[in-house]
Specification:
Number of strands: 26
Structural class: alpha+beta
CATH superfamily of one domain: PDZ domain
Strand order of the largest sheet: 8-7-4-5-6-10-9
Helix content: 10-25%
Length: about 400
């Protein structure tokens, strides 16, 4: 009986020795979990030995995948929400070489689904001239032949339609109150790499000229990387909602991203879609006139009262300007070898905004619709006048419904 306390003391001492010499030493816990592994120097890691023909290597591995931080979670959420709505658009046409042999040509871009009926919005410049076939590939890799429903080259937008099941429409936001610094995402098919997402911020809101020279008012400038193939794809806010249509890269001659991309604001697209739905084409406003841009030299030569503006050479009979009583030119002259008509009204203002060149007039018209009443500031001779004009409807025949490929 006297040996029992002694044995108990011996057991306790042996246990203490084992704990202090084995438990907690590097490699012990890991060897229980993964034979051949040791605890790494960083918390949450372990070191595993890999043996092979080249010898033995030690690899530091994480014990578990780390949790995504808040920023990563937002990126993932935007991508998962928007990707099913983004499509790849391929346009095929046939050209002829020097020997009149047929040469297939292909244009590629992006687009996004508007509704479950299969309507898709993209850029007009994604579609080749005289396209014989347009195809749309969904995020699930299924490809469908598309019908071109309407095209508006002035706004660089095109409406396609496919017949496909289980389509996921994009959510359209409002582009009116965008702020520089706001985070944005672009999803598309740069260089044919389908389903690529890039991220950046809104760098500026400015008016620019589009790929075909068309004016884009309040274009969204972004530093999110966009490349050939992104055209027509959505520019998204941090909630995965479409705020613009990626359209243009400022590349300075290089056919790749320069950190300066532009998107058509979604509100412009909504107005175009509204006209498509009501009329089958865009009711682009028009003054129904032919004009000559005026600079200081010309103004001095012909004795105009202002050294800027647009001189009306011709008024279309029955058009908006004709109905408002505006005058065209009556005296033939030549600018170099080009005949011009002098003596017409000189437009210098539009609703209180100075009009110095054709770009100013295009920009002013672009924020209006056919049927709107505007006030033009003109000079008739030396007399300054204000004239009310009801804008006409410049139908673009290429925007009619029913074009098919």
């Amino acid at each position: 009986m006297k040996l029992r306390p002694v044995l108990l003391v011996v057991v306790i001492l042996c246990g203490f020795y084992y704990v202090t010499t084995h438990v907690g030493r590097p490699g012990t816990v890991a060897s229980w979990l993964h034979p051949g592994a040791k605890v790494g120097s960083e918390p949450g890691t372990s070191i595993t030995q890999v043996k092979g023909a080249l010898g033995s290597f030690e690899l530091t591995e994480a014990d578990a995948a780390p949790a995504y931080d808040a920023e990563e979670q937002q990126n993932i959420a935007v991508y998962k929400k928007a990707l099913p709505s983004v499509v790849n658009v391929t346009s095929t046409a046939v050209a002829f070489d020097f020997f009149y042999g047929p040469v297939p040509q292909q244009g590629q871009g992006s687009g996004f689904i508007l509704n479950k009926d299969g309507l898709i919005l993209t850029n007009a410049h994604v579609l080749l001239n005289n396209s014989q076939r347009v195809e749309v590939k969904l995020s699930n890799k299924n490809t469908y032949k598309a019908q071109v429903m309407a095209v508006d080259k002035n706004h660089d937008l095109a409406l396609l339609k496919i017949a496909a099941p289980n389509l996921v429409p994009a959510t359209l936001s409002n582009s009116q109150n965008l702020i520089v610094g706001q985070r944005v995402y672009a999803i598309g098919n740069p260089f044919g790499l389908q389903g690529t997402m890039t991220r950046g911020i809104i760098s500026a809101i400015r008016s620019i000229r589009g790929p075909q020279g068309n004016p884009i008012e309040d274009a969204i400038q972004t530093d999110a990387a966009v490349n050939p193939g992104n055209s027509g794809g959505p520019l998204l806010n941090s909630r995965g909602e479409v705020i613009g249509i990626t359209t243009l890269i400022a590349n300075n001659g290089a056919d790749q991203s320069s950190g300066i991309g532009f998107a058509i604001p979604i509100n412009t697209a909504k107005a175009v879609l509204d006209d498509f739905a009501k009329y089958g084409y865009v009711r682009r406003p028009s003054l129904d006139i032919q004009t000559l841009a005026i600079g200081p030299d010309i103004a001095e030569q012909i004795g105009l009262p202002a050294d800027y503006g647009l001189l009306i050479e011709r008024v279309l009979p029955g058009g908006a300007a004709d109905k408002a009583g505006l005058h065209g030119g009556t005296q033939r002259a030549y600018q170099g070898n080009i005949p011009v008509m002098l003596g017409g009204d000189l437009i210098v203002g539009f609703d209180g905004q100075e009009i110095a060149n054709p770009q100013d007039l295009s920009a002013a018209l672009n924020v209006h619709r056919a049927g709107d009443v505007v006030t033009l500031t003109i000079f008739r001779g030396q007399k300054r006048m204000e004239v009310k004009v009801t804008l006409g409807d410049a139908k673009d025949q290429q925007g009619q419904l029913g074009q098919q490929t």
